[in-house]
Design goal:
Blueprint lengths: L18 H6 L1 H4 L12 H13 L12 E5 L2 E4 L4 E4 L2 H4 L8 H13 L11 H13 L6 E6 L2 H16 L3 E5 L8 H6 L17 E4 L16 H17 L5 E6 L2 E2 L5 E2 L2 H14 L2 E5 L23 E4 L10 E6 L18 H32 L3 H4 L3 E7 L2 E6 L10 H13 L2 E2 L1 E3 L3 E4 L7 H20 L2
Parallel strand pairs: 3-15, 5-6, 5-7, 7-10, 10-11
Antiparallel strand pairs: 1-2, 2-3, 4-12, 8-9, 11-12, 13-14, 14-17, 16-17
Helix pairs in contact: 5-11, 6-11, 9-10, 11-14, 13-14
Bound molecules: pyridoxal-5'-phosphate (PLP).
The site of pyridoxal-5'-phosphate has 14 residues, from helix 7.
Length: about 475
């Protein structure tokens, strides 16, 4: 948990504005929501009705937003309502919707070369992005990069690489963590039973350990001793009774759980886990699919604990909305032979152009903005536990902030219905937010939000919580 500071943050420096930006940001000029119809409006209703008949019912839609366009942190729906987006397409549009420099890079690349397949041919962008990712990955040593299209593909690559390199076949993951939905990554995922139901048997040889939750604890983990207890479980239970550490290829961990509820593992735990892995020749894999690419105010959540994972998996924010992922490994362990693993579309030239533009923007001030805006939000919500009896915990780093709702602050009984009601109420006021875990509301806006937007979101949520509490 990140205790909010007492200092007011530095004044916010807006992201670099180009002429295209100025001309193209009419919607963003409207920096706060403007609702012009009932929700959903007539056009939205019609599309939802059509969607219901033909689109997979496995998707979870919390509220009826039918998006038409987006600029910066604003989204306009098909009926002309504008919303402030604190969900960012599930923590994806890092530089905001349709950042003009990202759009320009995409347009340029699309007119030059749409596809080539980096698995069989060379192109400059693929090398340039690999060099860039290798340079920003934690640790100074050389790295190699494998490209995929989605978070789950980066995880699958890391699982296969870990087996290939170590010639071991077992994995350790953590309760509450989410790593994806394909069979390999789903075997690591231990977030919600519905994600696994009817899909077994999953991959054998995957063992789960309790995550060091410093607010709630669980499975015998004491909140005030979470790091030590969670490490002891691995050493004294898993390694003594269930699996010999010499059989374990890799440990997969989210330094900050995303889908599980925006829970940060304490630095002592991550450092202890790194030592444990080194001692037993186990690879440490950081799943930074949600927490990476500047969202926490640093490139990677792992950096806050100064650990150096052997493999870092990233996706979501890497290309501001284009499908791309990467598994970045220490160079000497990416020793698989030609043909061992590849993907036709992984590292598509257009997605890579978007990613290079995204990284330039993140370096140019947007990542620093995420740190400042996160600090501002934590400062402005610091008194909420005292003012709101249903707010159990507020925690976060940068713009990865979770608010956990409880029925009782002492017993910490979870309040999922209340959380859901608040999400719905925020939507009705033009603020888009998402849940995470059973009873947490997550704030994961584009990293370009400004002070006015941060304050609008805080005040709107404050009002929604008060309203929901009155109805208890
Ligand atoms: C931490 C983490 N890992 C992996 C994934 C899977 O990513 P994708 O949905 O792109 O396959 C997600 C998606 O939410 C995630 O949050």
């Amino acid at each position: 948990m990140n205790a909010p500071g007492t200092r007011r943050p530095e004044p916010v420096r807006a992201p670099e504005k180009t002429q295209v930006w100025e001309e193209d940001m009419q919607i963003a000029e409207r920096r706060i929501p403007n609702l012009v119809s009932a929700l959903p409006g007539p056009k939205a209703k019609e599309i939802i009705e059509r969607d219901r008949k033909v689109v997979s019912p496995s998707y979870t839609r919390d509220y009826p937003l039918v998006a038409k366009s987006g600029r910066g942190a604003m989204v306009e729906d098909v009926d002309g309502n504008t919303f402030l987006d604190f969900a960012a397409g599930i923590a994806v549009v890092a530089t905001g919707h349709c950042h003009p420099q990202v759009v320009a890079a995409v347009q340029r690349q699309a007119s030059e070369l749409l596809h080539m397949s980096g698995t069989d041919f060379y192109y400059p962008g693929l090398v340039e992005l690999a060099e860039k990712l290798a340079s920003i990955a934690p640790g100074k040593g050389p790295k190699r990069v494998y490209f995929g299209n989605s978070g789950t593909e980066a995880i699958e690559a890391a699982m296969k690489l870990a087996r290939y390199h170590t010639r071991r076949d077992k994995f350790i993951a953590f309760y509450g963590c989410f790593h994806g939905r394909t069979f390999g990554s789903l075997s690591l995922t231990a977030s919600k039973a519905v994600q696994r139901k009817h899909f077994g048997p999953l991959l054998g040889g995957v063992f789960h350990a309790p995550y060091p939750d410093t607010y709630r604890g669980a499975y015998g983990i004491r909140p005030d001793r979470a790091a030590a207890d969670a490490l002891a479980y691995i050493e004294n239970e898993l390694f003594k009774r269930i699996v010999d550490p010499e059989d374990v290829a890799a440990v997969f961990i989210e330094a900050i759980q995303g889908e599980g509820g925006y829970i940060a593992a304490p630095a002592e735990f991550l450092q202890g886990l790194e030592r444990l892995c080194r001692r037993h020749g186990i690879l440490l894999v950081a799943d930074e699919v949600q927490s990476g690419m500047g969202r926490t105010g640093k490139w990677w959540a792992a950096e806050h604990s100064e650990i150096e994972p052997d493999i870092v998996c990233t996706a979501k924010g890497i290309a501001s909305g284009l499908p791309l992922s990467a598994a970045i490994a220490k160079a000497d362990l990416m020793d698989w032979k030609p043909g061992a693993h590849a993907s036709t579309f992984g590292g598509n030239p257009v997605a890579i152009a978007a990613s290079l533009a995204t990284i330039r923007l993140l370096e140019g001030g947007i990542m620093a903005n995420a740190a400042r805006m996160g600090e501002l939000i934590l400062l402005q919500t610091a008194g909420w536990r005292e003012r709101h009896k249903t707010v159990g915990d507020i925690r976060g780093r940068g713009l990865m902030i979770g608010i956990e709702f409880v029925r009782d602050q002492k017993t910490k009984e979870r309040a999922p219905e209340l959380r859901n009601r608040i999400i719905q109420a925020a939507f009705e006021r033009g603020l888009l937010v998402l849940g995470a875990g059973e009873n947490t509301l997550r704030l994961c806006p584009p990293l370009v939000i400004d002070e006015e937007q941060a304050e609008f979101a805080v005040h709107t949520l404050d009002a929604c919580i008060s309203e929901a509490e009155r109805s208890l």
